[in-house]
Amino acid sequence: MLDSLSFGLETAQLILGIGSIALGSLTVILGAIGLLRLGDVYQRMHGAGIVDTGGAGLILFGLLLLSPDWSVSVRIILIGALLIMTSPTATHAIARAARFAGVEPELSTTPKKGEE
Amino acid sequence: MMVSFWLGLCLACLTISIILAIFRGALGPSPFDRVLAVNTVGTLVVLSICVYGFFDGRPEFLDIAVLYALINFIGTIVVLKFFRHGTLGDHVASSKEDE
Q1: Are the beta carbons of A36 and B24 separated by less than 8 Å?
Q2: B99 lies in some domain
Q3: Among B1, B20, B61, the residue to mutate for chain A (most A Cβ within 10 A)
Q4: Model confidence pLDDT, tens digit, residues B42-52
Q5: What is the DSSP string of B53-89?
Q6: What's the whole-model pTM score?
Q7: B96 belongs to a structural domain
Q8: Would the CB atoms of A29 and B17 count as touching at under 8 Å?
Q9: Within a domain: B6
Q10: Are B40 and B21 in contact (CB under 8 A)?
Q11: Those residues with Cβ within 8 angstroms of residue A54's Cβ, 6 or more apart along the chain or in another chain
């Protein structure tokens, strides 16, 4: 009974980890296509943000489920916390620097007067 | 093994994404596009190091990934500060708008 329960849990962990890694790979590649194809600095930041949060989070979560040892898990959690703290800060700094340097965001094709 | 196949596929996707981000960094019209692309390449390289450590069966690569994540963040902030101020720190000696 206990053996079958343990086997079921390990199999579920394996399947969930592999699924999370596959979904993270898809998210990373979509974010990279967005980074290449979108038309503005501020729009490209959206693609980079997808790579930084969705892709990195899903891939690190999948690796966390596949990790063989607790020290490996601690390092993966450390990398995840570091990426969660630093990548929005870096993106915010890039947006702020671009705004202060005078890069205008691309608005819609018929901009309303009075907004801005 | 099934895990090894999926980790290899994940490595292939990360490599394609790095190539796309490098194209954006080469094409980017403004310097901020290039900084954004370099930051994204850094994040993807951190993920690639982690996945390659699991793919190779040697998860000690994660220490290198921690170090690379720190260096990536500090490098991005340093380059942006250089764009903003034209110098790295030391505002007193070189701030021309104060004079």
Answers
A1: yes
A2: no
A3: B20
A4: 999 999 999 99
A5: HHHHT-TTHHHHHHHHHHHHHHHHHHHHHHHHHSSSS
A6: 0.84
A7: no
A8: yes
A9: yes
A10: yes
A11: A24, A27, A31
Which residues constitute the domain of residue B31?
2-88
Q: Nearest-5° angle of CA A73, CA A75, CA A76?
A: 65
Q: How far apart are CA B3 and CA A68, in angstroms?
A: 13
Query: pLDDT tens across A24-52, in order?
Result: 999 999 999 999 988 888 889 999 989 98
pLDDT tens per residue across span A7-16: 688 888 889 9
Quote the number of domains for chain B: 1
Residues of A with Cβ-Cβ distance to B14 under 8 angstroms: 25, 28
Give the amino acid at A110: T
CB contact under 8 A, B63 and A75: yes
Asked if the interface predicted TM-score (ipTM) of this complex is over 0.90, the answer is no
Interface with chain A: mutation pick from B9, B13, B66, B68, highest number of A CBs within 10 Å: B13
In a domain, B95, yes or no: no
Q: What is the average pLDDT across A53-76?
A: 90
Task: Please count the residue pairs, one from chain A and one from chain B, whose beta carbons lie less than 8 angstroms apart.
Answer: 143
d(CA A10, CA B39): 36
Asked if A39 has any chain B CB less than 8 Å from its own CB, the reply is no
Residue B47 and residue A59: Cβ atoms within 8 Å?
yes
User: Hey, are the CB atoms on B16 and A83 less than 8 Å from each other?
Assistant: no
